[in-house]
Amino acid sequence: MKSKTKFSALLLFLGPSLGVISLFFFIPVVAAFSLSFTDFDIYSLGSWEYLRFVGLKNYIDLINDPLFWTALKNTFYFVLLGGPLSVGVSLGTAMLLNSKYIKWKGLFRLVYFLPVVTTLVAVSIVWRYIYHPRFGLLNYVLSFVGVGPFDWLGDPNLAMPAIILMAVWKNFGYNMIIFIAGLQNIPEELYEAASIEGASGWQKFKSITIPMLAPTTLFISVITMIGYFQLFAEPYIMTQGGPLNSTLSIVYYMYQEGFRWWNIGYSTALAFMLFIIILIGTLIQFKVQKIDE
Amino acid sequence: MSERLKKILVILTATIIAFMSLMPFVWMVFASFMKSGEANVYPPKLIPDEFVLTHYITLFTRLNLTGYLINSLVISVGVTFISLIINSMSGYAFAKMAFRGKKHIFNSLLSAMVIPGQVTMLPVFLMLKNMGLINTYWAILIPGMASIFGIFLIKQYALSIPDSLIEAARMDGGTEIQIYWKVILPLCKPILVTLGIFTFMGTWNDFLWPLIVMTDSSMYTLPVALANLMGEHTQDTELMMAGSVITIIPVIVVFLALQKYYIKGIMLGSVKG
Lengths: 293, 273
Known about the structure:
By secondary structure, chain A is an all-alpha fold. Chain A is built from 14 helices and no strands. The longest helix of chain A is centred in the N-terminal third of the chain and has 32 residues, at 66-97. Chain B is built from 13 helices and no strands.
């Protein structure tokens, strides 16, 4: 049994981290929750006397706010289409790089991973030009197969798919690395045994790869979903939430309400809605995983 | 499918994906050296007729990019070093010190990771505003001094350090600080490098928080400056590409130099997320 560490040592080692996290994370969470029941706005910012308790008003206003529903719908569109697509591409490329036919695996891995480490704002700007309706690289490439040209970021039906495409390109490398590690942990004998019994490639994928990767996939799905719910920089840079609000996300709306118009009470209510949605999403994923087992 | 055909298909697919991953960067670099207007032609050009440095010169002379570069560097390096010290002390304490409520505190920290950072942004902003720290480096440095993920990463690693080593150092009369500095930190070096890269890149690439707390243009970080520049220079494709190149170069260099540690970090973070 280890002896108890002296209090002074604990204070020295844990004090700074727990202090910072309490002051800049836990207390603000509670403060945000309280603020979401007030009408904190630009006037209260000047003097706290104008602050009033308004009960559930912000939350009721949210439910009656068409822009909130638009932002919610767009965010779900991004998460529900972009998330699985991202995870799918990550798994596909992981299996590709795990193939015995590929030499220079390290080089391929490096190239696939490059978009992950680069600055989101910078690549969003680059993609904005790639999506240019007249001079963009993408429309030029598509013209060879006789499609287009499309006004990627100017068409309300295409703007979100364009952002999803860029997000998949930017992010797939990260989860690919985790999938590669997961794939390498599957014992080779399982595949050998299945081959002897005459299983096809697809059968092996369905009854060995997928079940063996289940814990990895759960982890990846959860972190991808949490990240994708926080969509902000891509629409801010590429479309400013447009056209016709078709790329306005929850975080973007929260930013506008909070830091553009200083509707702080309303904005914190929005942030809490986001938190609740993420929490429910995470719980659902864990539940689905349990049922599968 | 024959073995040969399969092989060709696999290699072809992998090459096409590699090409798609690189293409935007290749175009970005080439376009940044084009003369004004050369990137806005049809059909699009890949190689500039003549390589010019005009846009880089404009950025560094007329558009004060040096200032933004310094802001980004000071903030990213500052957050990285301060948080490495604070997180490693904390992670070591959670791994090796005995105290009441340790498990509870650690678990509540871990479960707090589902709370998205955006929830705290308004109260933290108001707090920093009252302290007069908006538009100073402290607005990013202070909230970045400790991170739950960092503590978790160090703790997992420090668990593998044998207790006997710490006991031996204590027998020799080492104080807690000496043990941490002379025994623990050197042993934790690989994980410190990993966490350091994560923190540096995360801070460098961060956009929303700097956008909120740095409203004075002299305090912009590179991503914020770039986003702002985009508003005024949308038509100047070549200039924007030069700005993007400069923003991306430092993270690419850090990544290429230390990619082994970075990749390892992704795995560690995913082990018991």
